[in-house]
Every structure is written in structure tokens, then in C-alpha cells.
């Protein structure tokens, strides 16, 4: 009989603590709403008693403060948007075997581009005993150097990522 009661006692105790926490959070929220309501009543009483400029002054001051903060946030957002366009937004990675007889797809091409197609392609060719790394600059999705098929694939992957992000709201 005692073994049946123990789970019920534990469950009831947990529910009691959850209910107490819920009541506590509701009381805090009600207290915050009551404070806001009292502030609104004070403003309404001040406007009813003297609907002049002195009663509106605190409201106008608060609105001016909000307007200044919104302007600062908007300027900051514009600076971030200007910088973000020049960050790496597309990344394409292709692994392959560059030379026959050397397996494991140890060679690679990595394309890193911004939203306008500027960036670089890094290619590492694994040749058994040595590895050669090449970098090719990109501008407007093209390079002044010829690109291999694997580098073209890496660039296509990166471009697809950038274009997908541009389509998202």
C-alpha cells in the first residue's frame, strides 16, 4: 500500500511547487500591470484637471526620448547593413581526387563570397608527397584566372547559398 502512495505524494508535491511558482509569476505580472495602470490614471487625471501644455510635457518628453533612441537604432542598423553586405555570405566546398592513383578525395576547392560575388577561391591539390595551395580572387562571380570544373562547382554552391538568402524575407 505504501509503494502506491509514494509516487502520488511525489507527484502532488511537484504539482504544488509548480502551482506556487505559477501563482508567484502571475502576481508579479499583475503588480507590473497595476503600476502601469496607476501611471496611466495619473496622466488621465492631470489631463482632466488641466488640459494644458504642462500636463502634456512629460508625455512629449518621453516621446522625444523614444524618437532619439529609434533614430540611433536606425543609424546603427544602417551601418550594420552596409558592413554585412561585404562579409562572407556564401561558402562552397568541394572535395575531389585531383590526380589518378591518389585516392581519398584529399584535394579541395573552397569558394568564399559576399553578396556581390566578391571573394576568393582557395584550392588545395594533394599530390601524395606534397600539397599545393592556390588562391584566386573573385569579382562579380568571375575570376581573372581560369577556374577548373571543381572550382566552378564550389563557386556555384556558394552562389546558390547567397541567392537563397537573398530570396528569404
Sketch the major β-sheet. 4 strands, antiparallel
Using the alpha-carbon principal axes, give the shape.
Answer: flat
Helix and strand string, N-terminal first? HHEEEEH
Count the DSSP helices.
Answer: 3
Query: What does the average pLDDT come to?
Result: 86
List the quaternary state of the chains. Answer: single chain
| Ends distance | 61 Å
Provide a compact summary of the structure.
By secondary structure, the chain is α+β, with helices and mostly antiparallel strands. It contains 3 helices and 4 strands. It has 2 domains: 2-83, no CATH class; 90-167, no CATH class.
Provide an overview of this structure.
59% of the residues lie in helices and 18% in strands. It has a 4-stranded antiparallel sheet. The two termini are 61 Å apart. The chain is flat. A hairpin with a 4-residue loop joins strand 3 (119-126) and strand 4 (131-138). It has 2 domains: 2-83, no CATH class; 90-167, no CATH class. The chain has 3 helices and 4 strands. It has 169 residues and is an alpha+beta fold. The chain has helices at residues 2-49, 53-84, 149-167; strands at 90-96, 107-113, 119-126, 131-138. The mean pLDDT is 86.
Features:
single chain; 169 residues; alpha+beta; 2 domains; four-stranded antiparallel sheet; 3 helices; 18% strand; flat
Amino acid at each position: 500500500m505504501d509503494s502506491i502512495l509514494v509516487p502520488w505524494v511525489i507527484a502532488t508535491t511537484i504539482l504544488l511547487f509548480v502551482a506556487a511558482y505559477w501563482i508567484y509569476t502571475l502576481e508579479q505580472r499583475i503588480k507590473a500591470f497595476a503600476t502601469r495602470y496607476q501611471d496611466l490614471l495619473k496622466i488621465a487625471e492631470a489631463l482632466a484637471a488641466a488640459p494644458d501644455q504642462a500636463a502634456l510635457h512629460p508625455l512629449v518628453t518621453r516621446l522625444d526620448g523614444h524618437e532619439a533612441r529609434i533614430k540611433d537604432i536606425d543609424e546603427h542598423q544602417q551601418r550594420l547593413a552596409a558592413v554585412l553586405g561585404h562579409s562572407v555570405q556564401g561558402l562552397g566546398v568541394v572535395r575531389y581526387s585531383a590526380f589518378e592513383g591518389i585516392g581519398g578525395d584529399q584535394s579541395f576547392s573552397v569558394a568564399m563570397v559576399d553578396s556581390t560575388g566578391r571573394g576568393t577561391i582557395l584550392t588545395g591539390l594533394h599530390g601524395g608527397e606534397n600539397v599545393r595551395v592556390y588562391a584566386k580572387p573573385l569579382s562579380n562571380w568571375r575570376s581573372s584566372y581560369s577556374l577548373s570544373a571543381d572550382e566552378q562547382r564550389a563557386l556555384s554552391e556558394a552562389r546558390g547559398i547567397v541567392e537563397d538568402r537573398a530570396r528569404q524575407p
